[in-house]
Amino acid sequence: MDRTEAVAPLTRPGPAAPGSADPAAPVITLRGAALAYGDRVLWRDLDLDVRPGEFLAVLGPNGSGKTSLLRVLLGRQPLTAGSLTVLGRTPRRGSRHIGYIPQQKSLPAHTMLRARDLVQLGMEGHRWGLSLAPGTIRHRVDELLASVGATPYADVPVGRLSGGEQQRVRIAQALATDPRILLCDEPLVSLDLQHQRTVTTLVDRRRRSADTAVVFVTHEINPVLGLVDRVLYLARGGFRIGTTDEVMTSSTLSQLYGTHVDVVRVRGRIVVVGAPDAATVHVHAGGANGGGRP
Ligand SMILES: Nc1ncnc2c1ncn2[C@@H]1O[C@H](COP(=O)(O)OP(=O)(O)OP(=O)(O)O)[C@@H](O)[C@H]1O
Questions:
Q1: Nearest-angstrom CA–CA distance, 250 and 123
Q2: Which of 81, 151, 158, 250 is most buried by a 10 A CB count?
Q3: Is ATP-binding given among the entry's keywords (predicted)?
């Protein structure tokens, strides 16, 4: 259980996006983008603009290339074809303009680093905090911990925190450099509904208060249904992009999966029935499963 649900507002605007004078200009631009490992095409012909403050949910079955897309955006994985600019430039590793919440793995119980140490590392990892006075760093770390409601356990070793508490600390760490883009890799996995709501609220508040673009990889759309601007659905080497209502339909997903899929709405939730969950289909470059907008 989290020790508190109280969160302080996140109101710090991020630094101006380099490479663009237009505050509404896309922060991520992919054109004709493809990623393949050997002859296995994860996705191709991907055109995508993500704008400041946008919440893009990335959905798809296991192995469809969701994490790989984040790795591309982080500059850790080159595209096989096409182009990518992030904040007007080719992405490079370690950019302080990108906050990253990696796929959740529980931190080992013996980890002695405290919550505040992890957040400080988020600043220093980008060499951003090093030029700041120690008092300023401490103040900023306190501010970040407060912003995610983690003040009560700021000095507790993170290995002793619950999954939900650790996730809050990871969010604070990802926000340590006031990023313009926040990449989240399944941050809701293994969290109960209450903690899922806490995490999605924190991420949503960040994008609304600081215009941070959010790329949110998730297996389940329902926890973010009310927040999502657009969905990018990856499957079988193809994709669909659009609003939730455009993408999450029986006809769109049936076309994407190449088999009949039912998408039904029950009590405000979206239920997908019949999608091959482990769609590890090998699609070759000349195959018939290319992506495209619905
Ligand atoms: N460096 C690599 N070299 C070769 N294959 C890779 C590499 N990285 C990932 N893959 C493979 O590419 C596929 C897509 O992996 P990725 O982690 O992007 O999928 P995902 O959609 O995030 O899956 P999951 O939902 O299971 O996390 C997987 O089958 C994975 O084994």
A1: 44
A2: 158
A3: yes
C-alpha 253 to ligand 1 mean position (Å): 21
> Does the pLDDT of residue 235 top 50, yes or no?
yes
Stated as kind and residue range, the H or E segment containing 207 is: helix 193-210
Which residues lie closer than 8 Å to 98 by C-beta, 6 or more apart? Answer: 73, 74, 86, 91, 179, 180, 181, 182, 183
CB of 223 within 8 A of CB of 268? no
Q: Whose CA is nearest to atom 17 of ligand 1?
A: 67
User: Which pTM was predicted?
Assistant: 0.85
- Mutate which of 66, 70, 105 for ligand 1? The one with the most ligand atoms within 8 Å of its CB, which is 66
Over residues 259-279, the pLDDT tens digits come to 999 999 999 999 999 888 643
Ligand 1 pocket, Cβ-based, cut-off 6 angstroms? 37, 42, 60, 62-68
Q: Which atom of ligand 1 is nearest to the CA of 65?
A: 18
Residue 1 buriedness (CB in 10 A; 0-12 / 13-18 / 19+): exposed
What's the whole-number average pLDDT of the chain? 84
How far is Cα 282 from Cα 139, in angstroms, rounded to an integer? 51
pLDDT tens readout for residues 92-110: 887 889 999 988 776 677 7
Question: Alpha carbon 15 to chain centroid distance?
Answer: 20
The two structure tokens encoding residue 243: 């609003």
